[in-house]
Amino acid sequence: MVSAPDPGSAGSAAWAPAAAAVPSAAALPNVSGFVWGALGLAVIALVAELIALLPVFGVGWRLELDEFGNLPSGGMTQALPTVPLWLPVLLAAGGVALAIIGLRKSAKKRAGVVALVFAGFAVVAPVIVPPLLVILGFALYASAGISTELSGGTPLG
Q1: For residues 94 and 112, what is the distance between their CA atoms, to the nearest angstrom?
Q2: Taking a C-beta distance cutoff of 8 angstroms, is the pair 55, 78 a contact?
């Protein structure tokens, strides 16, 4: 029968470096800087996505009228600078990577999970948010029309 080496014997010295190589939860910081970096990148990505999606909803365009007040052909010009949509998605993907690293390097895993979820949402937000806003707009328009019809007012549209 083989037993574990006695702590006082020479065989226990081989086990000590392996145990010291694994960091304990007490040696890790509560929240790693990678988690804060992930949250920062996710916030920057969401702001950039909002700026990138403004032209989709007609914000950031202005009418260019001629000297007589008429709308010439192609009279819409962009008033705000645009952000390519790939840039905020790339920033958010970097936030996901930092959140995963932060999960490994933090003692408190909850902050890393929050950063991972937040950065993950920032990655998929350009795909999810515009259709949801359109559906919400149609629902509000339909409910306003129904309430106008029921109250006997002038129909919308």
Answers
A1: 14
A2: yes
pLDDT in tens, 53-107: 776 666 655 555 666 666 555 555 555 566 777 888 888 888 889 888 888 887 7
User: Cβ–Cβ contacts within 10 Å for residue 97, how many?
Assistant: 15
In which element (H, E) is residue 76 found? strand 76-78
pLDDT of residue 5: 56
Q: Cα-atom radius of gyration of the chain, to the nearest Å?
A: 28
Q: How far is CA 21 from the centre of its chain?
A: 35
> What does DSSP assign to residue 93?
H
User: Which of these, 81, 56, 78, lies nearest to 137 by C-alpha position?
Assistant: 56
Mapping DSSP to helix (H, G, I), strand (E, B) and coil, where does residue 20 land? helix
Q: Kindly report the number of other CB atoms within 10 A of residue 47's CB atom.
A: 14
d(CA 76, CA 61): 6
What single string gives the DSSP state of each residue in 23-73? --TTTS-SS-HHHHHHHHHHHHHHHHHHHHHGGGGTTTEEE---TTS---T
Q: How far apart are CA 133 and CA 31, in angstroms?
A: 35
